[in-house]
Amino acid sequence: MAALLEVEDLKKHFPVNQGVLLSRLGKTVKAVDGVTFSVDEGETLGLVGESGCGKSTTGRCINRLLEATEGKVHFEGQDVRKLHRKELKAYRRDVQFIFQDPYASLNPRMTFGEIMSEPLVIHGVGTRRERQDRCKEMLEIVGLNPEHINRYPHEFSGGQRQRVGIARAIMLRPKMIICDEPVSALDVSIQAQIINLLEELQEEFGLTYLFIAHDLAVIRHICDRVAVMYLGKIVELGGWKEVYNSPSHPYTQSLLSAVPVPDPEKQRRRARIILKGDVPNPVDPPTGCRFHTRCPIAQFPLCAEEEPPLREMAIGHQAACHFAKPFPIPESKMGGEVPFDSQPG
Amino acid sequence: MRKKQPTGEQVAPVSGDATGAAAVASTEVLTGPARSLRADAIRRLKKNKLAVAGLVWIIIVILVAITADLWAPYWLGDPVAIDSTTAAERMLLSPSVDHPFGTDKLGRDVASRVVYGARVSLLVGVVAVAIAVAIGLLMGALAAYYGGIWDAIIMRTADVFFAFPYILFAIVLIALLGPGLQNVFIAIGVLGWPSIARVFRSSILSVKENEYVDAARAMGSSTRRILLRHIMPNAVAPIIVYATMSIGGAILTEAALSFLGMGVQPPDPSWGNMLDDARSFMLTAPWLMIYPGIAILTTVLAFVLLGDGLRDALDVKMKE
Amino acid sequence: MAPLLEVDDLHMHFFTRDGVVKACDGVSFTLEAGRTLGVVGESGSGKSVTAMTVMRLIPEPPGKVVSGDIRFKGESILSMSEKDQRKLRGNRIAMIFQDPMTSLNPVFRIGQQIAEPLRLHKDMSRTEAWAAAVELLDRVGIPQAEERARNYPHEFSGGMRQRAMIAMALACGPDILIADEPTTALDVTIQAQILELMQEIQQRTESAIIMITHDLGVVADMADHIMVMYAGKAVEYGPADEVFYNPLHPYTWGLLESLPRHDVDDKGALCPIKGQPPSLINLPPGCAFSPRCAYAKPECDKKVPPLVEIDNGHLSACLFAGDIDFICQYENRVKRGEDSGGDV
């Protein structure tokens, strides 16, 4: 069975501008540099990584908020990159987007009702009355008082605004929603509310999620499969259990080990891998394996010369490392021991 | 479809139980009517005493100017006509009950001339700024929308305008076009568009960055709809402030041009040309200078205060 | 011996046109040398305001310390003159802010900014201060410190800027380092570097750290003691292990429960705290958390519960914290030393 969304070798390069006349200086920021994955219907795929890894850019290329430089994006078999006006508009009924910033993603001059009914208006759905009813219904579904339909965003908190953003995204009953850091800007106790809401909606409406975030705990909770990104590439891809319990790529291992866990004794016991240095500049990514400059197990000259492809470690679990070895963590998961003195091989 | 109750009931969060995430959110009841941004801005403006004072004064001046024909010639005297028979007696009288601001060298009532001069000033303020705004909005929008070479052309042209001293430029334009009120509109309007264009362009560019614009695109909105529904209403706010303050500036420019004899021609009164007439009588008949001067000062100040108040009122938009 | 820092029932209110914002409404804690206090709370809890009040950085209108005291080495900061307070700031008590992009002045070189507190407090000459700044940069792990000191902030990455901020804070060898969400804006791997750096510095210099954050993981890593804040008040205070493994306030329970579990394989729904944090202008008459508390009783709305000691050094502002049956209602506590739910 074909997947709902198939992405193959997606690339997005941004030109580095040197003013109006000299913009063709050849340098580009390789924000996304060859990303391949697929999303099945009904599942939640997580894209996780630190800032600059290209996860948001990938999301935006999929619904064509940004135009990809190269690569294939197929949704239900259709080539998304080749869609024109009417077809593109129809595509945007099926694939919706939830934004990170609840303060910036709602037009401050529109009421909740206007914001939520906009997708309906754009696609010519329903009469005015029907749209109003649908909005009120939706407000209730996302847990807000339907009386608030005529109120303005600035009268509400971040969490409430994000609920409206979510409501807006499901108004057209899309097949897939790309969630770009939907809870990062919210308080901890509100994050849990919103995550629960997203999960309930997924079940109720049969949604597929592409969930982009940097918070590893949230990703672990909500995702079925996880793709770890670094500097524009996917370095590890697999089911959440495999990736979190047996991370194979040294970057994934460092990432998991770096996340502080709210359990003092576990924190004290952990052996942690602290990566050296900063993330390299995406204009000039390192040669060969992009991670080799910070990698604790890099071996020269191989890692500096040859870029490792995504290799299958186990069924449905891939890692892009010459020396990746699945490292099963016997006791739980994030926060367990990850010794690096194991011989690569 | 399952409906969740917005509930205030105490529900112990037991682990594993899929408590309606919905049930958790809306324990709040907002009182009062919906507060749109405009309503909020108006409320804030009302609190600003200086801005309100400015607005009140402007309204007074407008009313006085509009209704002038109904009362000024009768109570105060004709601003233009010279009654040659009585002129000599009525020359340069100091302020009195009959002539609250005195009379000028031709026996005309100064107060009446100030009132009619208000018409000129307001007209110039509004019309000239309207011209500048019309051109400026268009240019700014084009520069922001197309970007690239068009942006460069438009903005560099604006820069050329900025390079010249404003008043000098105005004088040159009037010299080319000829004196008169109409040409004053044109001159001030034509010189005023670059600032508006610049402000509008940067306003659009910054509004474009907002995620709600992306959100509109992501749901399939046409570019036209995005421009009209999302970008314009939000980008226009700084223009309101700028335009208001520009009216003050336009009034000053008109006064200067008329003072130099290039604007409103005698016998029509304008605050500027009244000041010109007053020059020779500064010490002997100071009222000729004081009252038009005060008129200019207070009116320009009123627009500036109002503009300032508008800026503060419109500024605190999203987060408190 | 008097503790290094003692905050005694501090109340700091903002008097605004819309009402009195009780940003800090009853905070007490002590800090010893070489120890870390973790101040945990969400936005609006008053944690940053408390720190800024200790540094006396809150402008006096509209803010005002309504009651309470802050004592540094036994001496009251509040009764000091402005001049004496300035001698403390940057010198004995230093602060690191959240956003390294905006807390460094973009028009001055990094080296100059680090040298500034040295010139102010230690009376060093320009060359001396510069040399000391370079050394500090080196100590906080900036490679090629000599050259990098000449850079401007925009030439540094986020993590490096934060290190520069730490260097600036450490310049005069302060007794107390207040870190206000120092790693919130940083990536996880960089955060790990910065936290490690701070711990290393603490070991070397025996300085005390006040770590303000909303991230319970960071606090579990760094803190010896934890103070949980809600709506401007301290609702729980105690040794870190106690607060994590034996929390005594329903808000703490709520916070701990609402986190996605890192160790459980069976993923059920999360357990969020219902409702929203209150507005600090219109606080409810009794316990501020009561409207959101799943265990609230009528007494909770009557008056504000005081922060009282329940156990040795462990305080809670819940009326029922001392009642063992009440405490046992919280079932989801993380078990010390074991895993709850292993491989299923």
Walk me through the structure.
The complex is a heterotrimer of chains A (345), B (320) and C (344). In chain A, 31% of the residues lie in helices and 21% in strands. Chain A has 345 residues and is of the alpha/beta class. Chain A has an eight-stranded mixed β-sheet with strand order 6-7-8-3-9-10-12-11, sandwiched between helices. In chain A, strands 2-1-4-5 form a four-stranded antiparallel β-sheet. With 320 residues, chain B is mainly α. Chain B has a single domain (38-70, 111-318), classed as Orthogonal Bundle (MetI-like fold). Chain B is elongated. The chains are: A alpha/beta (345), B mainly alpha (320), C alpha/beta (344). Chains A and B meet through α2, α3, α4, α5 and α6 of A and α6, α9 and α10 of B.
Question: Brief description of this entry?
Answer:
The complex is a heterotrimer of chains A (345), B (320) and C (344). With 320 residues, chain B is mainly α.
Key words describing this protein structure:
heterotrimer, A: 345 residues, alpha/beta, 11 helices, 31% helix, disordered C terminus, C: 344 residues, eight-stranded mixed beta sheet, 12 strands, globular
Q: Bin the helical content of chain B.
A: 55-70%
User: What is the spatial order of strands in the main beta sheet of chain A?
Assistant: 6-7-8-3-9-10-12-11
Based on CA inertia axes, which overall geometry of chain B fits? elongated
How much of the polypeptide of chain A forms β-strand, as a percent range?
A: 15-25%
Question: What is the CATH topology assignment of chain B?
Answer: MetI-like fold
The succession of helices and strands of chain A, N to C, reads: EEEHEEHEHHHEHEHEEHHHHEE
* Mean pLDDT, all residues of chain B: 81
Largest sheet of chain A: 8 strands, mixed
CATH superfamily of chain B: MetI-like
> What is the CATH architecture term of chain B?
Orthogonal Bundle
Per DSSP, the total helix count of chain A is: 11
Mean pLDDT of chain A: 87
DSSP E strands of chain A, number: 12
> What oligomeric state do the depicted chains represent?
heterotrimer
